[in-house]
Design a protein that fits this description.
The protein is mainly alpha-helical. It has two domains: about 30 residues; about 40 residues. The chain is built from two helices and no strands. It is rod-shaped and about 135 Å long. The relative contact order is 0.04.
Length: about 100
């Protein structure tokens, strides 16, 4: 007897859940779709990132200057070695 009434009650509960749940799911989905993907960071963060960007640019310029100086020094040393003949040690006088 109780088994005969369980199926209709489960059907009614399922129907009510679908009727009430479907609009709620649509409402939640619309809220997710209209929500921006990324919120704008606070102005303090933007200022800090800008300072970091300027610092990295300055470091890049200084590293380039250092490497240019290193290349120039290496070039001068290699040209100097090519231009100079090999220096021989002066002959020693025989010991008496």
């Amino acid at each position: 007897m109780i088994e005969d009434i369980v199926i209709p009650i489960a059907g009614m509960i399922t129907g009510i859940a679908i009727v009430l749940g479907f609009p709620l799911v649509i409402l939640y989905a619309r809220r997710m779709w209209n929500k921006p993907l990324h919120e704008a960071p606070p102005p303090e963060v933007l200022e800090r990132l800008e300072r970091i960007e300027h610092a990295v640019d300055s470091i890049a310029v200084e590293v380039e200057r250092i490497s240019e100086g290193q290349r120039f020094t290496t070039k001068l040393l290699s040209e100097r070695r090519e231009a100079e003949p090999a220096r021989a040690l002066p002959p020693k006088e025989p010991e008496r």
